[in-house]
Design brief:
The protein is mostly helical and 152 residues long. The chain contains five helices and no strands. It has a single domain, classed as Up-down Bundle (Four Helix Bundle (Hemerythrin (Met), subunit A)), CATH 1.20.120.50. The site of one fe (ii) ion has 5 residues, from helix 1 and helix 2.
């Protein structure tokens, strides 16, 4: 089992944590699709889900940085762009059967965790003490409170 959410990935920001958790959930779905021998078409479509949500998440995160004047916005956004390229390369290797799915899952786990712990960890620390608050900051916390204990 390579792709598995753990409480140690919590960064203490409702937007980041909610979306990171969803990203893990989709990667876990892909993990299950591969390991239960689903069709190539279904695996392909699940990879699209992961990629689209990753794009969405990176835009949300970049908006958050712009809203709060994060000084490393540009550098962080560049890392996002290269992460999306890495993801696309990994997915197309699977599509062309040039890589074992298990290698992709191993890659995905590190792809997620490294970025959370490095760049996103720095952003979460900045947001904690930042005087300029993000637009609609309480919305994610409200969502978390209402769905927090729901089964996913
Ligand atoms: Fe990020
Ligand atoms: Fe992130």
């Amino acid at each position: 089992m390579y792709v598995q959410w753990s409480p140690r990935y919590v960064l203490g920001n409702a937007l980041l944590d909610n979306q990171h958790r969803m990203l893990f959930l989709l990667c876990r779905k892909l993990d299950i699709a591969i390991k239960t021998g689903q069709s190539a078409q279904l695996i392909q479509r699940t990879m699209v889900e992961v990629k689209k949500f990753a794009e969405f998440h990176f835009i949300s995160e970049q908006n958050l940085m712009l809203e709060t004047g994060y000084p490393e916005t540009e550098a962080h956004a560049k890392v996002h762009s290269s992460l999306l390229i890495d993801l696309q390369v990994g997915f197309s290797r699977i599509g062309h059967k040039a890589e074992f799915p298990e290698d992709l899952l191993y890659f995905l786990h590190h792809w997620l965790v490294n970025h959370f712990e490095q760049e996103d960890g720095k952003l979460a620390a900045y947001l904690k003490d930042c005087k300029v608050r993000p637009v609609g900051e309480s919305l994610y916390a409200e969502m978390y409170a209402s769905f927090g204990n729901a089964p996913i």
